[in-house]
Design a protein that fits this description.
203 residues, alpha+beta, three-stranded antiparallel sheet, 40% helix
């Protein structure tokens, strides 16, 4: 038989107050092993139990908060992934549309550097390269005619268009519109359309 005992009890006093006690005891025996007496003490651990319960509650609350936060982050991450996929799909559709357009479509930043180009037109714009300044990629006569219009679009964030004639007697309509990102002006889209045949028929 065990010689040491440790137990916890829930005690309800006559006045209805609940207390918790911890009993620690030891049985003393003689040489033959016969129990002679039991010594020990009883400790009131009610406050310890209250703290333990409070800590357990706080831990459960923390675990729930972590679970809720993890769920919210997973939900936000899934939404972000879907948004990225949708944006890529839109970009692919726009790219297909731009690639098949007979017009030359490009975007320039506020430093007038080419950021996007739908296709090359080496016969008319042999210097059109991404990252280059518009001054260096457009024929000088076209650039000089559209520079003031472009600056106005950048300054006012409003669309504009003009028609220009080149030294080789080709006519171009150039439409410009600001592009916004997060409600802030980001760049300018330029669409160059060869209208030489149209102008010739008008004459």
């Amino acid at each position: 038989p065990q010689a040491h005992y440790t137990m916890e009890y829930r005690v309800v006093r006559p006045d209805g107050v609940v207390r918790y006690v911890h009993l620690l005891g030891e049985i003393l025996r003689n040489a033959q092993g016969t129990p002679l007496k039991m010594e020990g003490f009883i400790q009131d651990i009610t406050e310890y139990k209250r703290i333990e319960s409070r800590l357990r509650g706080l831990n459960e609350e923390l675990e729930q908060r972590v679970a809720d936060r993890t769920f919210a982050l997973e939900k936000a991450n899934n939404a972000l992934v879907m948004e990225i996929i949708e944006r890529r799909n839109v970009e692919e559709r726009l790219r297909a549309l731009f690639d098949n357009s007979p017009d030359l479509i490009l975007t320039v930043d506020h430093n007038q550097e080419v950021q996007f180009l739908n296709r090359q037109q080496p016969e008319m714009f042999p210097n059109m390269v991404l990252g280059h300044n518009l001054r260096n990629v457009l024929p000088t006569d076209i650039f000089l005619q559209c520079q003031r219009c472009l600056e106005r679009v950048i300054t006012t964030n409003t669309a504009a268009s003009l028609q220009v004639v080149c030294e080789n007697d080709t006519w171009w309509e150039i439409r410009m519109a600001p592009i916004f990102r997060e409600n802030q002006p980001h760049s300018v889209m330029m669409v160059l359309t060869d209208i030489t045949e149209k102008r010739t028929l008008q004459v």
